[in-house]
Write a sequence for this structure.
């Protein structure tokens, strides 16, 4: 995370609009959309060094959700860091302060050599492309009609 990451805020804002639109229309958003939103929100907090505020009063749950999102995207380096932090928060006796655990997470994420932004973007592109490659029912019907009309001519 040594270089600036300007695209994550735009990505997150776009995803938030999609999720708000889906929720307002009474439709449900997909698992992939939830994963993307969770990963983007967490990563923005990491980039902005605002993990304490992002994790809030339920850090174990937020860490678990972010861990699951990064695991789904197959960014195992981040998922492993989050799993270790969550486990240390749950298993430590006496309990370690959340601020200490968050500081360790932040340091680990800051040392990552991978471009997590690009990996999230690649996942988003792959998901979009796979949806475009799968024809919807309407597309299949249209395609069948077009083929039939072409044979008649």
């Amino acid at each position: 995370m040594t270089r600036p990451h300007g695209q994550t805020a735009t990505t997150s804002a776009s995803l938030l609009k999609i999720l708000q639109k889906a929720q307002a229309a009474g439709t449900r958003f997909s698992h992939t959309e939830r994963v993307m939103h969770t990963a983007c929100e967490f990563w923005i907090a990491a980039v902005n060094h605002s993990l304490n505020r992002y994790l809030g009063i339920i850090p174990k749950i937020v860490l678990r959700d972010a861990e699951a999102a990064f695991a789904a995207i197959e960014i195992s380096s981040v998922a492993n860091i989050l799993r270790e932090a969550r486990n240390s928060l749950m298993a430590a006796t006496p309990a370690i302060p959340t601020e200490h655990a968050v500081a360790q997470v932040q340091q680990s994420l800051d040392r990552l050599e991978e471009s997590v932004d690009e990996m999230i973007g690649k996942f988003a592109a792959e998901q979009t492309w796979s949806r475009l490659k799968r024809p919807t029912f309407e597309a299949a019907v249209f395609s069948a009609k077009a083929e039939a009309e072409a044979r008649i001519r």
